[in-house]
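Renewal narrative, Specific Aim 1. Our central claim is that a sequence can be written position by position from structural information alone. The example that follows is taken directly from our test logs and has not been curated for this report. It begins with the structure tokens describing the chain, in the order in which they were read.
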């Protein structure tokens, strides 16, 4: 009997709760105005600092115009990073614009003597054996790269030495080729803005420096 009574009480409580939720009307929350007309609103300190930082960032990114009387030049070339850094050090305090530009240039690092490219690696090896049969030992068969299937017969710093080697081989009936050995290397130019009469050569010191006019931005 006791358990039956408890079950009846629980059923009644559940029915009452369901009836209350069904008939309940939510309380309306009044939305207050952001502020009265003519009265300034409060701004949190964090919000004020954020606005100031945003304004400063926009100002920092805004481009600065150079004076119309300035002349813009590209000075160089500088063949090493150390010579470029030295130029930045000596000119940096006197110019209105300072940035560098890198370019790739081709330079000759010597002269090479070689047999012309063979039709196949087997033919290149056969040519090398023919050299060995004539007592020539300082050769190298190129097996990869731009000179593949050629037979290198030496790399010389001076052109005259390469041509002497070519003549020596020709006396043995071997037709060798002399060619400049070129390579790409970086070179730097320093872009500056200075007064038209500024002497930029004296701070740089001795050197084959050039200056090319460039647009000012």
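The sequence written for that structure reads:
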């Amino acid at each position: 009997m006791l358990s039956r009574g408890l079950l009846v009480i629980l059923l009644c409580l559940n029915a009452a709760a369901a009836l209350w939720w069904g008939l309940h009307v939510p309380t309306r929350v009044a939305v207050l105005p952001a502020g009265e007309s003519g009265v300034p609103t409060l701004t949190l300190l964090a919000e004020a600092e954020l606005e100031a930082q945003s304004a400063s960032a926009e100002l920092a990114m805004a481009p600065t115009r150079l004076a119309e009387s300035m002349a813009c030049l590209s000075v160089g070339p500088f063949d090493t990073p150390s010579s470029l850094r030295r130029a930045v050090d000596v000119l940096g305090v006197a110019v209105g614009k300072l940035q560098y530009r890198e370019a790739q240039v081709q330079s000759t690092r010597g002269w090479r003597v070689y047999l012309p490219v063979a039709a196949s690696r087997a033919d290149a090896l056969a040519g090398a054996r023919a050299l060995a049969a004539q007592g020539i030992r300082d050769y190298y068969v190129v097996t990869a790269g731009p000179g593949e299937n050629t037979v290198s017969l030496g790399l010389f710093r001076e052109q005259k030495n390469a041509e002497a080697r070519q003549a020596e081989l020709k006396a043995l009936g071997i037709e060798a080729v002399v060619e400049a050995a070129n390579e790409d290397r970086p070179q730097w130019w320093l872009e500056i803005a200075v007064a038209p009469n500024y002497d930029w050569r004296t701070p740089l010191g001795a050197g084959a420096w050039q200056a090319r006019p460039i647009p000012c931005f």
